[in-house]
What does this fold into?
Amino acid sequence: MMELLHSIERRMADIRKKVPESVAGEFFVDHTCIDCDTCRQLAPAVFAEASMYSYVHTQPRGADETRAALRALLACPVGSIGTIHRADAKQVMDDFPIRIEGPVYYCGFSSSDSYGATSYFIQHPGGNWLIDSPRSVTHLMRRFEQMGGIRYIFLTHRDDVADAATFARRFGATRIIHRRDLSAQPDAELVIDGTDPIEVGSDFKIIPTPGHSPGHCVLLLANRYLFTGDHVWWRADGRILDAWRLGWRDSWEQQTASMQRLLDETFEWVLPGHGGRICLPCNEMRRAVASLVERMRA
It folds into this structure.
């Protein structure tokens, strides 16, 4: 724990660089923010988005919001969140990983190497899974060990591998990545080829979804949880599913076709690497995917 606390201290935010939008009070965000969305996911009552960075729109009101803000401070990949007085990070450290629902957990401790992408942990009787990689902090290593270790590390695409190799060595885990993104993890233990879905056991299906990157894949758990990397995410302000259109990525047309293939699957959760996550009834989720496909075609 002391190792992690010392790491936090080395990355403390600078009040002299506070973004102007942050309201006065205990918490602030400085100009090193990379707009990764981590704080807005963890503490939406406190943090909001300005132009290409986050800021404190409302100081925490009560113990629950303060705890959420401290979680965001601890999880921030670049140490952009600070407090006027010294924050006691120890009181929220044991919250991570945070249960989302059932066997699915939010890891926290996002890595700047993956631009603050969200990673997830799945507890499963056939072996636990790590979806993309957080920072290899001592606390998470110990917690994963207590929760049964890691059997598989599923890497959605080349951008979000972060410290996957370190976790693989620690737990003897099998890293899974598509061959077309293999350059990001060339010694991965299990390499996916082609575009056909691949089932791993009875509950997991890997679905290649090229577009954002040539080898992008998503993972479907138990026809309920879809881990989508940078393929699709929930836009809370419009209450719609959305896709990242970044000109330096692979192919928008290919990504549109990959999105359409999700209409053949059943799921209720979208759990992305970047952007909002959402749970909808299956029929509503299918309509949301169909609407997105039509917008992408247009």
